[in-house]
Design a protein that fits this description.
The protein has helices at 2-16, 19-41, 45-105, 111-121, 140-146, 149-167, 197-213, 230-242, 245-248, 260-263, 271-282, 287-301, 306-327, 337-346, 350-390, 398-405, 409-420, 424-442, 447-453, 459-470, 474-479; strands at residues 129-137, 171-176, 182-189, 217-221, 225-226, 253-255. The chain is of the alpha+beta class. The chain starts with a helix and ends with a helix.
Length: 481
């Protein structure tokens, strides 16, 4: 009917634009008037011809006016008909989408209710078996920054159309627009598929999409079962399966049957492992051990359900980021907790999440190493101040120094050598000899008196130590220019 209406309107429109009609009409009308005038004066027979011509032209003019009027009426009717058809198509499409969403999201035990929804929308499935596939856009967060929403929609629909084209040879496929970064296909099959059949078809579709547009999709395929009530379960299975791109990588196609056993594996969050990772990073600054514990953590969660694994990895990343924010007092170029959490959610694969956690740990190593260095320098400075104030005491010990800074003697001995390159007792001896050298040059005190002033009660030991440190006896040193 549409093509007939278009043809009628085209003829009317063509006639309305025929300028030749108006020229003929005006010329003929003038000719008829001339003939009537001649009949009054010269030839009576011309009057009859003139009357006929004028009448014919008047009839043609009236027909022309009616044609133009009918053309306008026809145009308005066609425009209204097109708009009505457009609205009906929109309503029909929305009704179909509503029914599809009901089939996906509502676990209805009674198929009568489902059949009622289909009848109300004028839909009918021809085949007995159903399966649901979820196609999820990889790197959605990157695509949303580079492309407009319209472009992303085009990428999604191109993927859906490729899949439908490939699937249409063996089954009916219905597209459901129910996600920002993913789409859903309801497949209506005549018979059960062999394991891997649907997976091979979707892998081919994913390959085409990457070749044509450079955009990757991961696909999760639910279980195949008979009856409308199986659609909801298949949809939930497909959502679970597509999350296994966490382990399998981008552009993966995962059938639920292949991960059914892993879906049943659960474990508690390895909190002790998280604490060991942070302890090795923040307390011992041992990067090798930290990364070993991180690899062990990821290996453990790699054998459980993808949903739990993603949650645990996310939780570990947030814990590392929190430790970094607490350690870095300046907080330069740090994600906020919300930003970091959002960013971790956007990373679809285990490898990407691991790289992000390692990068955050590297920042944590840098910050804690700098902070530890400042703390160690502070410890060294306090010990040096204590020695400078108490070097004259011949009974000063390492335990006295450790007690002054509130740390163990073994710890300050190790820190002092690490920071200064020599032992704490070497520093005490060097300071005492340095003060003795100054007293020898600036005072007239005897070497024995100077030995006591710098903390040596044994004069012979002082002489021997001074000779060893300076290469001179006390007498020689005092008399050197």
């Amino acid at each position: 009917m549409d093509w007939q209406r278009e043809k009628i309107w085209g003829l009317l429109k063509k006639t309305s634009k025929n300028k030749l009609f108006f020229l003929i009409f005006v010329g003929g009308f003038l000719a008829g008037v001339v003939l009537l005038a001649l009949s009054l004066f010269l030839y009576p027979v011309t009057g009859v011809a003139g009357c006929l011509l004028v009448c014919a032209l008047l009839c043609a003019g009236i027909a022309r006016v009616l044609t133009i009027s009918l053309g306008h009426v026809a145009k308005e009717i066609l425009d209204q008909d097109k708009e009505l058809e457009k609205q009906l198509n929109k309503v029909s499409k929305n009704a179909r989408q509503h029914v599809f969403l009901q089939l996906l999201q509502r676990d209805m035990a009674k198929e009568e209710r489902l059949q009622q929804l289909l009848l109300q929308s004028g839909m009918e499935f021809a085949q007995p078996f159903f399966c649901v596939a979820v196609m999820k856009l990889d790197d959605f967060w990157l695509a949303s920054e580079e492309y407009s929403d319209r472009d992303i929609s085009l990428f999604k629909f191109s993927m859906a159309n490729i899949a439908i084209e490939l699937l249409g040879k063996r089954m009916d496929a219905y597209l459901v627009e129910n996600g920002m970064d993913y789409m859903t296909l309801i497949l209506n099959l005549k018979e059960l598929c062999e394991p891997g059949d649907l997976g091979r078809i979707f892998k081919e579709a994913v390959g085409y999409e990457v070749d044509y547009f450079g955009i990757g999709f991961s696909v999760g395929i639910g279980t195949v079962a008979e009856g409308l009530s199986s659609i909801s379960e298949s949809y939930n299975n497909a959502l679970d399966a597509v999350e296994y791109r966490l382990f399998f990588g981008k552009q993966s196609v995962t059938e639920h049957e292949s991960i059914r056993d892993q879906e049943s594996v659960h474990m508690d969050y390895p909190y002790e492992m998280e604490q060991e990772i942070l302890r090795q990073a923040m307390r011992f600054h041992n990067r090798v051990k930290t990364m070993e514990y991180l690899d062990t953590f990821l290996e453990q969660v790699g054998h459980i359900a993808a949903e739990d694994a993603s949650l645990y990895i996310h939780q570990l990343g947030v814990a590392v980021n929190r430790a970094l924010r607490q350690a870095d007092k300046i907080q330069v170029n740090l994600y906020s907790m919300r930003e970091f959490s959002r960013f971790m959610n956007f990373l679809p694969t285990l490898k990407e999440k691991q790289q992000q956690i390692k990068a955050t740990l590297d920042e944590l190593f840098t910050v804690t190493a700098e902070d530890a260095g400042r703390k160690k320098q502070g410890i060294v400075q306090k010990v040096e101040e204590f020695v400078n104030e108490n070097y004259q005491n011949p009974d000063i010990t390492l335990e006295d120094m450790a007690q002054h800074v509130g740390l163990s003697s073994n710890y300050i001995r190790r820190i002092f050598r690490e920071q200064c390159g020599y032992s704490l007792m070497d520093y005490l001896v060097n300071h005492r000899i340095s003060m003795a050298k100054e007293l020898l040059k600036t005072t007239d005190r005897t070497a024995r008196e100077i030995a006591e002033l710098v903390g040596y009660s044994n004069t012979k030991y002082f002489y021997s130590l001074f000779k060893k440190q300076t290469g001179y006896t006390t007498y020689e040193y005092r008399n050197t220019p």
